[in-house]
Amino acid sequence: MEDSTIRGRLAGFRRRLLVWSTGIVSVAVLIVPNAAFARSDDGAEAASPQQVPSGAYDYNGDGLADIVARRNSTGALEVWPGNGNSGFGTRYTVGFGWNAMNLIETAGDLNGDGLADLIAREASTGRLYFYPGNGSTFSPFQSIGRGWEVMSAIVSGHDYTADGNVDIIAVEAGTGTLWLYPGTGTGVTFAPRLNIGSSWNQLHELTAVGDTNEDGHPDVVAVRNVADCMYFYAGPGSEKFKPGVLFDCGWDVLEGAAAVGDFTGDGHLDWVGKDPDHNHLYLFHGDGTGSFFSSPVIDYGWNSMTIA
Ligand SMILES: [Ca+2]
Ligand SMILES: [Ca+2]
Ligand SMILES: [Ca+2]
Ligand SMILES: [Ca+2]
């Protein structure tokens, strides 16, 4: 039975969805005013927008952002090609055996060859693997290393050190430390890791959404365990994220949040997530300020899928 608190959170989440479904698409869903995202005016030269590296989410080589997901019943890994307008083309299977993995994440172009890649963690060993995209499927995997079982979240796809190489960030479950693993452009080797934050084990659904506020530095969103409130963390371009800015609360119904790049084709980065209660896949439609518009249902039946 849902208690009244849970019902209230669910109601809040679904109210946001209703805003979209009733066609009032111009109504932003966020409580936080855009001023909260105002860029610092310290006289520094404005960074050129680098929302997402070329090809970071394009797995089939057509220039449009795609979703990769595992079909949990069979362990098949599937590419769901985006059509550039919030929908999908014909999905295809790129491999089997992916139920051996307990983490699958988009990695952007981790090895710098212009093609979107994946990382995945093997459940039995804790080893993290790099799967280089080849423009349609994946080339043979390579090992990044052991010991990743201590991480509660591992995300990638963006360059947080501003050196041109895509990096990995990960949350150590036991300590809450947020670690940055500076990429070297190879996909498998990294510079010594950096401690860039604490208490990140008090959050879930960490999602490397990219530069959603379009200031030139990649950002993340995550949900704090307390009251399931979602926060936006702006990337300052110098490793550490800025303090979180509250979106709103009631995100306990969100699962499997994942970055997708610009899935709508409007030039702004978006992200997706599942509502398992209704077996819906939602698209959170970035507006270029770090916030987003209401989340249309773009597909159904995704409870059986694990989104990379
Ligand atoms: Ca594509
Ligand atoms: Ca690549
Ligand atoms: Ca980097
Ligand atoms: Ca940013």
Task: Explain what you see.
The protein is mainly beta and 308 residues long. It is 6% helix and 36% strand. It has one helix at 4-21; strands at residues 67-71, 76-80, 92-95, 101-108, 117-122, 128-131, 142-145, 151-158, 167-172, 178-181, 194-197, 203-210, 219-224, 229-233, 245-248, 255-261, 270-275, 280-286, 292-293, 297-300, 305-307. Strands 16, 17, 18, 19 and 20 form a five-stranded antiparallel sheet that branches. Strands 3-2-1-21 form a four-stranded antiparallel sheet, with no helix packed on it. A hairpin with an 8-residue loop joins strand 8 and strand 9 (167-172). The relative contact order is 0.17. The structure holds calcium ion (4 copies). Residues 159-161, 163, 165, 167, 182-183 line the site of one calcium ion (CA).
In brief, what are we looking at here?
The protein contains 1 helix and 21 strands.
Features:
membrane, transmembrane helix, mainly beta, transmembrane, five-stranded antiparallel β-sheet, binds calcium ion, 308 residues, single chain, 6% helix, globular, 1 helix, 21 strands, VCBS repeat-containing protein, disordered N terminus
- Into which percentage range does the β-strand content fall? 35-45%
Mass-distribution shape: globular
**N to C succession of SSEs:** HEEEEEEEEEEEEEEEEEEEEE
Average pLDDT confidence is: 86
According to DSSP, the number of beta strands is: 21
Protein name: VCBS repeat-containing protein
Transmembrane segments: 17-37
Organism: Glycomyces niveus
Keywords: Membrane, Signal, Transmembrane, Transmembrane helix
